[in-house]
Amino acid sequence: ACLASSAGESFSDAGAVLEAVLDHLRGGPLRGTYTFVVERPGRSAEYVMEIVSDGLERGLIRIVAPPREAGQAFLMDGDDLWLYNPRLGRSLRLPPSGRSSAFLGSDVSYNDIVGRDLERDYVVAFGSGSLAARGTIVLELTPRAGAPTPYGRVLIGVDEASVVPTWIDYYDQRGQVVKRLTLSEYLHHGDRLLPLLMVVEDRTRDGYRTVVRLTGVELNEAIPEACFTLQALERGC
Predict the structure, then answer these.
(1) What is the C-alpha R_g of the chain?
(2) CB 98 within 8 A of CB 81
(3) Which of 39-48, 52-61, 139-148 has the lowest mean pLDDT?
(4) Cys bridge to 217: 18, 32, 76, 222, which one at CB 3.0-4.6 A?
(5) Distance separating alpha carbons of residues 189 and 55, to the nearest angstrom
(6) Whole-number percent of the chain with pLDDT over 90
(7) Helix%, strand%, coil% for the chain, nearest 5
(8) Residue 66, preceding bond cis, omega within 30 degrees?
(9) Is 16 strand, coil or helix?
(10) How far apart are the first and last CA of the chain?
(11) CA 185 from chain center: how many Å?
(12) What is the DSSP-derived secondary structure letter of residue 102?
């Protein structure tokens, strides 16, 4: 049986649960403003950026503050990742593996905010029962052969009642957890529950974390195709 449409029913298909999780995280077109606070021992930095996404594989992010970073932009379209540097006045294409790289020197990767790589690059199964707290489903993801990911496995904690993700743990090839995403403060919109707060912790270094807040959200408004082009990357959507 596949995932039932109403929350709280039993689940027997891990792939359907993952699809529902990603529908909450990504499903449908989105516009909004991200504020990143990048925390390091003894210091922090704040970035503000505008995002548009088609809810699937495409997203355009443009930095608006601080002034020294303003105008930088990032376009994700499937495996393609482009960066625009306004000082150089040119766009640079990164390899698919770049999607797992740190975004603006933070603890967040491009994959964390745009795309459905967890669905595309991994095989999903239900995790061991010992990992699940009461009311939580655990999904265990292992990379497909040749997938452009540095991780050895990914675990996702899913609230059983609402089928929303509450945490995501990333493990290296040696089985050590290296990064945790904690998701909360969900915005209800129709049948979607979109997390407005994401805290990303580097589990290999104390005091390294990034707090990401999404504000000014507009959902399900059609995003013009022109927003996902190199012209939009360089000149705006």
Answers:
(1) 18
(2) yes
(3) 52-61
(4) 32
(5) 14
(6) 62
(7) 15, 45, 35
(8) yes
(9) helix
(10) 42
(11) 15
(12) B
